[in-house]
Specification:
This protein is α+β, with helices and mostly antiparallel strands. Helix 1 packs antiparallel against helix 2. It is rod-shaped and about 70 Å long. 8% of the residues are buried. The C terminus is likely disordered.
């Protein structure tokens, strides 16, 4: 009677073994990239540099710097808009860095290369 399922000799076929090694390598690369991302800082500006926002790779706002010229008590709304724009630009830089790093691992569109 023929044996069903399993692999001869109990091991994985060569292709499966290579896929597992490739997946483990990608996992290590992703962990390294995540650590690098956490350690990086990104700076977004708005209003021609009147507002500068620094965020971490984890999208935590670390600092907000304001030019004295942009602080107008009669126009608080503009200052609020500039701060939001600076934060959004910094977050966009985090996303772009992350996408580029993941794309460099053969993950276009978030899919695995095999």
């Amino acid at each position: 009677m023929a044996k069903r399922g399993g692999f001869p000799g109990g091991g994985m076929p060569g292709n499966m073994s290579n896929l597992m090694k490739q997946a483990q390598k990608m996992q290590r690369q992703m962990e390294e990239t995540a650590k690098e991302l956490e350690e990086k800082e990104f700076t977004g500006t708005a209003g021609g540099g009147a507002v500068t926002v620094t965020v971490t790779g984890k999208k935590v706002v670390k600092s907000v710097k304001l030019s004295e010229d942009v602080v107008d008590p009669d126009d608080i709304e503009m200052l609020e808009d500039l701060i939001v724009a600076g934060i959004n630009e910094a977050f966009s830089q985090v996303d772009a860095f992350s996408a580029k790093a993941m794309g460099g691992m053969g993950l276009p569109g978030g899919g695995l290369p095999f």
